[in-house]
Specification:
single chain, Rossmann fold, Dehydroquinate synthase-like, alpha domain, 3 domains, seven-stranded mixed sheet, five-stranded parallel sheet, P-loop_NTPase, EC 4.2.3.4
């Protein structure tokens, strides 16, 4: 099996590729290679000497050959010379490396600092003459190419080498899920510490103004997003909306539209949503409807939002008649699941997100269920104060990645919920009814947990699954601290709301159930007395 570097570092001369790359490798316990040092070892002379004797074309040929060999046989951190990515053969090699899951990191230093370091360092044939002027002219040519070649940007402005190395380490350890498919503009879901720092690169250079839509409880995270946006040169319009489902109303949406109108937002401006699932749903709906669609990025701050609401392109608001009845299918430019935001979550809000995680395990990925079982006690006892320094962080990152992959599998071939995507609604038919009857005092993940037990009971009553699988639903969800029964509402109220559910067809009830773990089927209009009996079984 071929080894590949954990990361390949590119950047301008003086950006600190060698120093920061070496420190990152030490932090991660990995070997480090510098392409220029390896070339000098190979040719038996310094690079300036080689340039003088053989010229730049010969040097670039030696360089591209060494880079290809190293990228296909080295498993540490690999730093390239400043001009290497300008060679077509190197760009081709790096594109192949990225396609196989590699990370090409563009290390972006303050130009003044980089120029000074490059000048001080000496021994750079490309800076012969007026070094600062040459650096600037090279930067103008190289920067667009580097941005195009790299799939990760690391800004080191104002950071010490040790701080820059920690930032690079976070970026290397970050997980990414690529979302693509019919009717979808491709985008990535990035999962890890400091994922939010990708904001400027996702918004691009066209947008001048950004509406930052967020709720009050996530103020510290919206402050961080605002600082990143201003650093990136954007004018930021701050829009605070009510928390949770109270923020997903026509009145709130109308207030946001009015504000965008007053601020003169155009098609080239952008939206960033920071918060839980309700906030990202609203931000996406605003982005989809303003000027018939503007660019937007989701920054989910709860586990539920990271695994569910922020990914998949469904945006929407609630009406008095039901949840998410008004909305649009509209994909973001990217989703940034920065797990540092989870550290501010109370235990109960973290735990409710496990409902959607478990759902993804039941409908497709049994490994999710195994991880949940293994770590149930630690997940149930989640403590934000210790989360980022605990082994639980990597467990949660893996659960988020796997759950997002399940969602992407169902969404990529079915953006508009005609078939496969409906399977993501396992547990949701009753879950949505519970939320409605409880006036959204019940959290979504908790309602879905009860809804899954109901769906399992219904499937068992109709002979699709055995009793053991129903009991497994109850034991696993209970071990995670999720509810498995509900005592509110009457059967007639629940039945009326289930008839109004999006999955109903005309007056026919329609349910998503399992016939085994990892395999979902539709139930079309099952006998009313059986549905009522399944409901009776989830009563306390």
């Amino acid at each position: 099996m071929t080894n590949h570097p954990q990361a390949v570092v590119i950047g301008m001369m003086g950006a600190g590729k060698t120093r920061v790359g070496r420190e990152t490798a030490q932090l991660m316990g990995l070997p480090f290679l510098d392409a220029d040092v390896e070339i000098e070892r190979q040719v038996g002379m310094s690079i300036p000497e080689y340039f003088e004797r053989y010229g730049e074309p010969a040097f670039r040929e030696v360089e591209s050959d060494l880079i290809r060999r190293t990228v296909n046989g080295f498993d540490g951190i690999f730093s390239l010379g400043g001009g290497a990515p300008m060679t077509p053969a190197v760009r081709e090699c790096l594109a192949e490396y990225i396609a196989e899951g590699g990370k090409v990191i563009y290390l972006m230093a303050d130009p003044r600092e980089a120029m000074e370091r490059a000048r001080r360092g000496g021994g750079r044939p490309m800076l012969n003459g007026d070094a600062d002027e040459r650096w600037q002219s090279l930067y103008q040519v190289r920067d667009p190419v580097f941005r195009d070649v790299a799939n990760v940007m690391v800004h080191t402005y104002g950071l010490s080498p040790a701080q820059a190395a920690r930032r690079m380490k976070d970026m290397i350890e970050e997980r990414a899920v690529h979302v693509t498919g019919s009717g979808i503009d491709p985008y990535d879901v990035r999962i890890g510490e400091r994922a939010m720092s990708h904001l400027p690169e996702l918004l691009g250079e066209k947008a001048a103004r950004v509406a930052l839509i967020h709720t009050q409880p996530v103020q510290r995270h919206s402050d961080h997003a605002r600082a990143l946006l201003r650093q990136g040169g954007y004018e930021v319009v701050d829009i605070v909306v009510p928390d949770a489902e109270a923020g997903k109303t026509v009145d709130v949406a109308n207030g946001v539209w009015q504000r965008l109108g007053e601020e003169g937002f155009t098609r080239s401006d952008a939206i960033v949503g920071v918060g839980g699932g309700a906030a990202t749903d609203l931000a996406g709906f605003i982005a989809a409807t303003w000027m018939r669609g503007v660019r937007y990025v989701n920054c989910p701050t709860s586990l539920l939002a990271m695994v569910d609401a922020s990914t998949g392109g469904k945006t929407g608001i609630n009406t008095p008649q039901g949840k998410n009845l008004v909305g649009s299918f509209y994909t973001p430019a990217g989703v940034l699941a920065d797990v540092r935001t989870l550290a501010s979550l109370p235990n109960d809000i973290f735990v409710e997100g496990l409902g959607e995680v478990a759902k993804s395990g039941f409908i497709m990925d049994e490994e999710i269920l195994r991880i949940l079982e293994t770590h149930a006690a630690a997940l149930r006892g989640f403590d934000g104060a210790t989360f980022l320094e605990s082994p639980l962080k990597d467990v949660v990152c893996e659960l988020i990645e796997r759950t997002v992959r399940v969602k992407v599998h169902h969404v990529s071939s079915d953006l508009k919920e005609q078939g496969l995507r409906e399977f993501l609604n396992y547990g949701h038919t009753l879950g949505h009814a519970i939320e409605q009857i409880e006036h959204f005092r019940w959290r979504h993940g908790n309602a879905v947990a009860v809804g899954m037990v109901f769906a399992a009971e219904l499937s068992n009553l109709l002979g699709h699954i055995d009793r053991d699988l129903v009991d497994y639903h109850r034991s696993l969800l209970g071990a995670l601290g999720l509810p498995t029964s509900w005592g509110g509402g009457s059967w007639s109220d629940v039945l009326a709301l289930m008839h109004r559910d999006k999955k109903a067809r005309g007056n026919m009830l329609r349910f998503v159930v399992l016939d085994r773990i990892g395999h979902v089927i539709h139930l079309e209009d099952p006998p009313a007395d059986v549905v009522e009996e399944a409901f009776r079984r989830i009563r306390p």
